[in-house]
Amino acid sequence: MVTYVVLGNFTDQGIRNAKDSPKRAEAFKRTAETFGVTVKELFWTQGRYDVVTILDAPDEFSAMSLSLSLGALGNVRTESLRAFSAADMTKVVEKML
């Protein structure tokens, strides 16, 4: 599995319909499942980003397909960060010169 931290900001459309955001989040979780992606955590946040989500995806293609599908709805723009666990990072540094 590949883990991502997804940072999101509401679009103008998304903020106009902010009251629907919890319902949209549940729909997003169901949509994610169709791509084999698990939504581990989803938080609404104050500050630079409106939403922070932690996802586990079977591969980069599934994560990208989900991201594009979400963006096409027009409520949020996202930035995805590939995340590495401590075990992953141990493997990475073992390969360093």
From TrEMBL:
It holds the Pfam family GYD. This is GYD family protein. It comes from Bradyrhizobium jicamae. The lineage of its organism: Bacteria, Pseudomonadati, Pseudomonadota, Alphaproteobacteria, Hyphomicrobiales. InterPro entries: GYD/TTHA1554. It comes from the Bacteria.
